[in-house]
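Re: that backbone. Tokens:
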């Protein structure tokens, strides 16, 4: 009998991945830090707090006891990007060193401008690390709707094994060795989605949104090349695929946040008490771009808007009146 798979984080995305892993034949340990949350999920077989109306399969075992993860031979880290360091610090106490940790957050650590795989590698030196990213909404995955994502690890065999383990009839997981490219696509597209949402909220129309999406994707590609990501990765699921989904749907938390900013709401009002990864990532992304001499006007505009250094009118004017030059 194979060891269970750990899911560290029982928000909507963690629960959706737990359901998908169970559908693929895995026994799953679903960890949340909140004992009341774990108890409620065990009793009702539903994550009513984050994913109401979706039943938890019998193969998913909710728990708030971190040592329950010690039986797992791999774990998905499904916590917000800015919480990755805190949660990972506790994992070496319960997770075997040889157990791969798959990062499922999409962001950059704001305090250090570190990629999340570097944060994990720093805290679990020598242990395998991977990343899962791609165009996916938690509700779609949880309900078994067709979805395709990418799992990347530097070791091709490890990436292929983990991808095969998570793949089922509905969730198709492709594998890659380009860990950096997959991380960058997932992180940068959230910032781009805020800009696209703001354009719609401002009433600039679908044509302006399409222009921002295209130019923003071009700067995402430049950033990826500067940090060792492969262009072909960014043209795939974890790059272009995720950009298309996140920049074009009101279901995207980042797009919806931007759209509310565009309608004149404050940053706090636009967030509505919910986590918006792109708002945290923007400043770090811009700092990293500057460090490598990469021009990222869309990301810079979003960072200035979220930080209050520029008004919405100034931000949109800046983006839509960039100097004309050859498109590259």
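Recovered sequence:
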């Amino acid at each position: 009998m194979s060891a269970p798979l750990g899911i560290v984080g029982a928000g909507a995305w963690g629960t959706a991945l737990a359901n998908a892993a169970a559908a693929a034949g895995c026994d799953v340990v679903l960890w949340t830090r909140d004992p009341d949350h774990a108890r409620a999920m065990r009793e009702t077989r539903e994550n009513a707090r984050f994913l109401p109306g979706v039943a938890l399969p019998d193969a998913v075992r909710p728990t708030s006891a971190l040592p329950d993860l010690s039986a797992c031979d791999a774990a998905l880290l499904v916590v917000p990007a800015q919480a990755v360091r805190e949660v990972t610090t506790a994992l070496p106490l319960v997770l075997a060193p040889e157990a791969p940790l798959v990062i499922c957050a999409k962001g950059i650590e704001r305090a250090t401008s570190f990629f999340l795989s570097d944060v994990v590698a720093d805290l679990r030196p020598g242990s395998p690390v991977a990343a899962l990213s791609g165009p996916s909404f938690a509700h779609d995955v949880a309900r078994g709707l067709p979805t395709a994502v990418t799992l990347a690890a530097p070791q091709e065999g490890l990436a292929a094994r983990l991808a095969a383990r998570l793949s089922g009839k509905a969730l198709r997981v492709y594998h890659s060795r380009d860990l950096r490219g997959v991380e960058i696509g997932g992180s940068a597209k959230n910032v781009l989605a805020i800009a696209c949402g703001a354009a719609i909220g401002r009433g600039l129309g679908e044509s302006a949104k399409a222009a921002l999406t295209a130019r923003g994707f071009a700067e995402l590609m430049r950033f990826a090349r500067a940090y060792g990501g492969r262009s072909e990765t960014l043209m795939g699921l974890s790059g272009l695929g995720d950009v298309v989904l996140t920049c074009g749907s009101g279901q995207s938390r980042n797009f919806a946040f931007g759209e509310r900013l565009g309608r004149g709401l404050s940053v706090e009002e636009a967030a509505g008490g919910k986590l918006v990864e792109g708002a945290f990532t923007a400043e770090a992304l811009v700092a990293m771009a500057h460090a490598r001499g990469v021009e990222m006007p869309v990301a810079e505009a979003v960072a200035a808007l979220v930080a209050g250094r520029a008004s919405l009118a100034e931000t949109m004017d800046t983006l839509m009146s960039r100097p004309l030059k050859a498109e590259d």
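The first strand starts at residue 5 and ends at 8. The two ends are 53 Å apart (CA to CA).
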